[in-house]
């Protein structure tokens, strides 16, 4: 009598990081909360903030029958966990995918989107300092230049303190995914997801006004130490610097150290040609 072939379940990335009950494993719970169901196709998408996630969440909300079209995009902001996977969803998924991004671009994008002007993220950033756990004491955003911001990420409480700049590897619920896409070549994701799971991707950037892709890029130098209020004025005028121009050689090295795991993962999958700094 022959043996029936046993199909191995998908291996969860953080389930073995602790021998405690899985429902008390903080690393697993965080990544599982950001793993979203695409119900009709029994698929799982790990969403990572600043990696095209607004477009993806609007697209999932339409696919999952919760909104009619992109005009109802505001729904996603109060429903971050609505499609989050349970353990059965994670283990039995037929298709899994994630979208990664160049860590240098993602960090500059997060700074311009979340730290310029008063936002929940910027208030949270100040609060982390005031608790006395962080890199330096801080009274407000006036001195939080990009240079200051990047250097402060050496403090774990700040690095992990907001999902928009938290390392991408923290969001990965699986050891391996069926497909990895990169934001730098997003059209590949659009075409592949339509072909494999009939998921139509809606570009929500003009609706949510996240990101600065529609900005005119001002040329120059010294932007790493430019005051946030000056950057805010430039943002309102639609004349922000290019992401690359925020970096000095020293800041590049800091990011390489702080986000080493993210950079290694990106290079392993996509090579380094799409990285801002190779």
Summary, kept brief:
This is Sulfotransferase family protein. With 278 residues, this protein is an alpha/beta fold.
How would you portray this structure in words?
- One of its GO terms (biological process) is carbohydrate biosynthetic process.
- GO terms for molecular function: sulfotransferase activity.
- It is found in: Golgi apparatus membrane.
- Keywords: Glycoprotein, Golgi apparatus, Membrane, Transferase, Transmembrane, Transmembrane helix.
- Its main location: Golgi.
- This protein is an alpha/beta fold.
- The protein has one domain.
- 38% of the residues lie in helices and 6% in strands.
- The protein contains twelve helices and four strands.
- It has helices at 26-33, 53-63, 87-92, 103-115, 120-130, 146-152, 156-159, 186-197, 205-208, 228-237, 249-258, 260-270, and strands at 35-38, 43-46, 95-100, 179-182.
- The chain has a four-stranded mixed β-sheet, sandwiched between helices.
- It is globular, with a radius of gyration of 20 Å.
- The protein starts with 25 loop residues before the first helix and ends in an 8-residue tail after the last helix.
- Mean pLDDT is 90; it is low at 1-6.
